Amino acid sequence: MITMDSIIREGHPTLRKTAEKVAMPPTEEEKEVLRSMLEYLINSQDPETAEKFGLRPGVGLAAPQINVSKRMIAVRTTDHKEELLELGLFNPKIVSHSEETTYLESGEGCLSVDRMVEGEVPRYARIKVKATTLEGKEITLRLKGFAAIVFQHEIDHLNGIMFYDRIDKSDPYKEPLPPKEVIKISKFHGPAS
């Protein structure tokens, strides 16, 4: 079981590496790692389990965050229709995105960052992602709003990018251009990924 002790923190070199592509079909070990990442998100979103094991709630987790430098992410959040997205994905890739940008009004958090980082993190408002599921199915996801932000945050981890790298250092609250949409977190959205 993945716990907070399994998650590496900022400053660890793995978080700055470009993760390796997973050869298809994935090994049983790779599938098990991805399953355990998804299990962490489920456990962390259950208040009783989270308290029992000291888990910070998360909506996404990338393999580099558990010191596995492979292109795997787990996401558990709701989409723009408030439908549950619970996915373990191999080799997710953004294949297209909107011109329009967005950001989380409350800022982004990260399970690998134990401090508050203030500032607006510009993200694409809509993205299209291609990936392979745990079950081996190739899928294409069209995402917008909070779910799109979560996926961009996790895919950044696969490329050695931390969310705060995207904050304008000279003006952390500078609103992104072109036109933007501000996302407020609902009860289904966790603060960290």
Attribute tags:
3-stranded mixed β-sheet; 5-stranded antiparallel β-sheet; alpha+beta; Peptide Deformylase; 3 helices; disordered C terminus; 8 strands; 193 residues
Residue windows where pLDDT falls under 50 for at least 5 positions: 186-191
* Shape, principal axes of CA atoms: globular
Helix content: 10-25%
**Would you state the CATH class?**
Alpha Beta
Assess the beta-strand content as a share of residues: 25-35%
Task: Kindly report the average pLDDT value.
Answer: 92
User: What is the CATH third-level topology name?
Assistant: Peptide Deformylase
One letter per element, helices H and strands E, the order comes to HHEEEEEEEHE
The biggest beta sheet is recorded as: 5 strands, antiparallel
Radius of gyration over alpha carbons? 16 Å
> What is the CATH homology-level superfamily?
Peptide deformylase
